[in-house]
Design brief:
153 residues; 7 helices; mainly alpha; 2 strands
Length: 153
């Protein structure tokens, strides 16, 4: 389960429970919509793989749904995940005490000038399709690929 969807079964179940009441999964049709659990699984499979393993064809073969349906499910789940209401529940803002503790940590482990940059998230690698022409070695990552490392602050 973890190697295919990149989350634990408990995390998957909790995510499905949080998303299943979102209006994007409701319809006024006689035809029932695909279960939310299937739609979340398709999104996690797509986002947990790269290259040919993340192609629409491969995801469609894995899931048993058509390529157009895979796109539609991806769009629906992303719509639910990016709703401000969900984001507030899933990623609550830190308390004032947590912010101050983070600022102190930054000051102690780096330099004072960065103290107010207390919230940094680092580590997402975005693979590049081609080797960059200029300064290519600067884009070569620890996994032996050319990529960009995304940092959010």
């Amino acid at each position: 389960f973890r190697s295919v969807l990149r989350v634990s079964p408990a995390t998957f179940d909790r995510l499905v429970n949080e998303l299943e009441d979102d209006p994007v999964f409701l319809n006024n049709s006689q035809n029932e919509q695909i279960p939310v659990s299937h739609q979340v699984a398709v999104l996690l499979f797509r986002f947990g793989h790269s290259g040919n393993a993340a192609s629409l064809k491969r995801v469609a073969e894995w899931s048993g749904y058509g390529k157009g349906t895979v796109l539609l499910m991806t769009r629906r789940v992303l719509t639910a995940l990016l709703r401000p209401e969900f984001l507030k529940r899933a990623i609550p803002p830190p308390t004032e005490e947590e912010r101050e503790a983070a600022k102190n940590w930054v000051e102690e482990h780096s330099c004072y000038a960065w103290r107010n940059g207390w919230l940094f998230v680092d580590g997402t690698l975005i693979p590049l399709y081609f080797r960059p022409y200029w300064y290519a070695e600067a884009y070569f990552d620890r996994k032996c690929n050319y990529s960009l490392n995304i940092q959010v602050s």
